[in-house]
Design brief:
The complex is a heterodimer of chains A (69) and B (210). Chain A has 69 residues and is mostly helical. Chain A is 43% helix and 9% strand. Chain A has helices spanning 3-8, 11-24, 42-51, and strands at 32-33, 35-36, 65-66. By secondary structure, chain B is α+β, with helices and mostly antiparallel strands. Chain B has 2 domains: 2-93, no CATH class; 98-204, Alpha-Beta Plaits (2-Layer Sandwich). Chain B is 37% helix and 22% strand. In chain B, the strands form 2 sheets. A 4-stranded antiparallel β-sheet of chain B has the order 2-3-1-4. Chain B has a 4-stranded antiparallel β-sheet with strand order 7-8-6-9, covered by helices on one side. Chain B is elongated and about 65 Å long. Classes of the chains: A mainly alpha (69), B alpha+beta (210).
């Protein structure tokens, strides 16, 4: 295993980063924002991702609140 | 539901599908999807959104839009584009041919993890906490210096275990930046450092537009 492979081999942590950035990053524009991102607990999210198949994890249950404009 | 803001170009038509549409006003274009209601708040939906973004990003620079953003109709989208054209063109220019690399640094393990049972040891506890913060700050400083030749911008992200920093890196420097981190990890014996990416520039276009 090369150095690069060793430091980039954490699939779980890559998944956490991707999901975190999809719901916590990007341009925020006017309109209806379905998910409010305040309070997302990444440690909890990471653990839930490890413990449950991704398609079974309900984002709302991870601490997000729903808000409509 | 909105996906991404991209520069107008002839190549966009290849990305259109039955579900994925493009509103193109000649300078800027926005990928969107007609939906009867908001997306389900499930990981499956979030990851599906991510896959579509990655497909768009493989073809063109983009400003990703936060998951779950909806507008009433295409007229509202046209108005939004018109209102924010200058700002979004400028931001696209800054992230064009650049990617985001996220670096997870180890949590410093200096001192006790929990508060002491008695007040007598409170000073030691606070001293240990301060040392932990200094240790983590030192790592962040080393990382920042290491990536200075490659990165154009940097943000702190909420910690997962230890500190987490994200860097905006020109695509041509991504491999060199990763190699520099790998060398640092070896020299310093920092086995717990993790790097993810390259990602679309999620963290470098997130200003709130009222």
């Amino acid at each position: 295993m090369t150095d690069l492979e060793r430091i980039s081999g954490g699939d779980d942590i890559a998944l956490v980063d991707l999901v975190d950035r999809l719901i916590g990053g990007g341009v925020v524009v006017g309109g209806d924002i379905v998910l409010s991102l305040a309070g997302v607990d990444l440690v909890y999210l990471g653990l839930r991702l490890v413990l449950a198949p991704a398609h079974e994890v309900d984002v709302a249950a991870l601490g997000n609140s729903v808000s409509r404009r | 539901m909105l996906y991404a803001i991209v520069p107008s170009s002839a190549g966009l038509s290849a990305l259109r599908t039955e579900e994925l549409h493009v509103h193109d006003d000649g300078e800027l274009a926005v990928f969107f999807e007609h939906r009867a209601g908001p997306p389900a708040r499930t990981m499956k939906e979030v990851l599906s959104f991510g896959r579509t973004l990655q497909q768009i990003w493989a073809r063109t620079s983009l400003l990703p839009i936060q998951f779950g953003t909806e507008l009433d109709d295409e007229d509202e989208l046209a108005g939004l584009l018109s209102e924010h054209r200058h700002e979004w063109l400028s931001r696209l220019g800054r992230v064009c041919e650049r990617s985001e690399l996220i670096v997870h640094l180890p949590k410093a393990t200096v001192g006790p993890e929990h508060p002491p049972a008695s007040a007598d040891s409170g000073r030691d506890y606070l001293t240990a906490i301060a040392e932990r913060v200094r240790t983590e700050d030192r790592l962040v400083d080393e990382l920042r210096e290491l990536l200075a030749p490659f990165a154009e911008d940097e943000r702190a992200l909420p910690a997962v275990e230890g500190p987490r920093r994200t860097f905006l890196v020109p695509d041509r420097h991504v491999e060199a930046a990763r190699a520099a981190i790998a060398g640092w990890v070896d020299r310093a014996g920092l086995d717990e450092v993790r790097v993810t990416g390259p990602w679309p520039p999620f963290s470098f276009c997130g200003e709130v537009v009222p």
